[in-house]
Design a protein that fits this description.
The complex is a heterodimer of chains A (about 210) and B (about 230). Chain A has about 210 residues and is mostly helical. Helices cover about 70% and strands about 5% of the residues of chain A. The longest helix of chain A has about 35 residues. With about 230 residues, chain B is of the alpha+beta class. Chain B is built from 4 helices and 7 strands; from the N terminus they run H-H-E-E-E-E-E-E-E-H-H. In chain B, strand 6 and strand 7 form a beta hairpin. Chain B is elongated, with a radius of gyration of 30 Å. Classes of the chains: A mainly alpha (about 210), B alpha+beta (about 230). Chains A and B meet through helix 2, strand 1, strand 2, helix 4 and helix 6 of A and helix 2 and helix 4 of B.
Amino acid sequence: MHIPDGVLSGPVLVSTALLAAGGVAAGLRKMDYEHVPRVGVLSAVFFVASLVHVDVGVSSAHLLLPGLIGVMLGWEAFPALAAALLLQAIFFGFGGITSLGTNVLDMALPAVVCWYAFAPAIRRSGNTRRAFVLSFAAGVTGVALGCVLVTVVLVLSGREFTAAAAALFAAHIPVMAAEGFITAAAVTFLLKVRPDLVGPRRAVPLFPGVEG
Amino acid sequence: MKVHKCHRWPGDMLPLFAALGVFLIAAQPAMAHKLSLFAAVDGKTISGYGYFSGGARPHNVTVTVTAPGGEKLGETTTNEKGEFAFPVHYKCDHILTINAPDGHSATFTVEAGELPDDLPALGVDKTRTPQVRHLAPKAAAPVAPQALAPATAASADEIDRAVEMAVKRQIDPLGKQIIKYREQLDRYEEKIYLHDVLGGIGYIFGIAGIAFYFLGTRKLRGNGVTPQGRGK
């Protein structure tokens, strides 16, 4: 899922970088004081989780967590993933610097889609089973959308569609299943202990007594 | 404005920290999802293999060989073990590029100095076009050293050849050893170290801290508080 330097064509790199920059700006604008720790922690979770690699035969795969990050952060997924991906590129040569924008877009956009598609429903779902099913779907959808986006950028850069799509989906079907369970477990747990961490949020004043 | 309970965040974020801790422990043998390439010269063949850090090998993936000038020298394909071989026709730098269909790629350069001296320089022999070949058998085993003729009959030529053979016999295992070490070095370079992972997490928390400061300042101002204290 991390596309290295020198694979994509110039126009694809530039346009995805611009889109990703827009997403990061939107995420930073929407980011509230109270959400900074959450964004930082999820950025760190992504940073570590996507380093753990599993051999799936033809290729290797790792967790991406767009579903979990999406339903918890929404647009703030963009700055969270941008920071983590930049550090992965610098430290481990994982992905690349010129392809940073593409990688951010490929992973953060599915997260934002999951936010709009699943977060309100998860928040409203009265019972645990419903929340479990919805967040499982969010985990699967996030990874699937990520694969679709990577296929799109590869095809736009002149790669053959079937080979790219087959390779990506073959490697990511186990990831989708794993992410479904991880997202579902994490979200249902959070709904029990801190329901406000999931889904649309309310503003909380910094010092409740001090108001302008 | 409705007054909400003010959360103390370290406590609130405890479940997330716990999750991060679990990931960290799981990450001990962590390996990046990255494609790498290793190659070495064996006679007049460049042989090597691609590998995803973590052990998986890329099957049936094209390896393109180009000269430094960008001229394509040929291509080959990896087998089920991710290995490939490429017959060398010219003495020049060979840049190997492996391109997996899912967007991973890696390059490796075999320098001209590693190739046998009796190969023509690139561009000298125009009649011999580079060939596209799939995993070719390894180059024929070196010719067994000839028995030395009695010293009295040995011409300078024969002595030369005998010395060459003797030296080759001595050096061959050494070369294999060096290839082994280079392979090991390559893997160490690709390895993910825990201190790098911790450093990255530290950076992320540091960036979050800076964002916290600036957003907090903005928020305080919005609430009529200057950074120095409660103003107005």
